[in-house]
Amino acid sequence: MTTIKSILRRLGAPVRGAAAGREIEDELRFHIEMRASDNIAAGMSPEDAVADAMRRFGDFDQIRAVCEGIRKERLAGIMKVIKGCAWVILGCGLVLKMSSNIVGVVGDFLILISLLWRLLIHLREMQPDRRRVIADLRERFYGGPLSLSGFTEDAPRPVPAYDKDGRTPVERLISDESSDGVK
Amino acid sequence: MAQSKQNLIQGTLAMLILRSLARGPLHGYEIAQRIQQSSEDVLKVEEGSLYPALYRLEEQGWVEAEWGASENNRRAKYYKLTRAGRKQLAVETSNWERLSEAIAKVLQTA
Q1: Chain B touched by A81 (CB under 8 Å)
Q2: Which pLDDT value is given to residue A78?
Q3: pLDDT under 70: residue ranges of chain B
């Protein structure tokens, strides 16, 4: 936690602009005032104390400018890092987007294949049922084999719609039932 | 020659600042005082030059600064050593010892 706070403080410090500039000045002034206070405590007059503190400190404006320059260098360095990070994030985003597109296309293709596969299995499973229905019809109405296109396996022999007496299957069924009734 | 002298002074000042902060956080004025007192008034830092050096050390991540209240209840910026700063102090101290030993040997034999 301390490390995170420290990093954030280090990142934030140079970005504060004018406030950071004032902080530099405050810090330097504090130093001179402390020296002047010590000088006064040592017996100097206030004027001499301040003059001595200023002399020992050096060129205030120049030192402030140097400190500002270092702060700006830090800011430039941080901006460089931020720009670098932005490019890396952008690049990663593009790569991820492209990858997700590829994954999406492959996924769609697999889903389509699985759906087609499922449909084929369903058709294969459905086929015997249709055969059974047709066999029932055959037994009930024709009493013989029936041929339908598309079902060639164990296909029954084709049966003409009309029998040798020229009756339709329905007529024959009625006729058979009535003859059964006569019997 | 002037350039090498300046570099030596800058490098030495950084080491002295790091050493002063090894015992705990200090503000700039206290650092200057600590160096002067520890050297028994032999080393007198030009006080203004302390701050660019401190800012450089902060930039390098060897010290970190935080505003706080001074002993006379004034707002002051306190510097403290970071973990990297502590390592750097060990390196600088070791280098300095090697250098001073080497110079001492040369002076003894010459």
Answers
A1: no
A2: 80
A3: 1-10, 110
Best residue of A5, A10, A11, A31 to probe chain B, by most B CBs closer than 10 Å: A31
Q: What average pLDDT does chain A have?
A: 76
- The domain locations on chain B are 2-109
One of 1.10.600.10, 2.40.300.10, 1.10.10.10, 1.25.40.10 is the CATH number of B2-109, namely 1.10.10.10
Sequence-separated contacts (24+) of B23-26 with Cβ below 8 Å = B24/B80, B25/B66, B25/B68, B25/B78, B25/B79, B25/B80, B26/B78, B26/B79
The interface residues of chain B toward chain A in range 50-109, judged by CB-CB distance below 8 A, are 51-52, 55-56, 58-59, 61, 64-67, 70, 72, 74-77, 82
pTM above 0.90, yes or no: no
Contact B48 A58 (CB under 8 A): yes
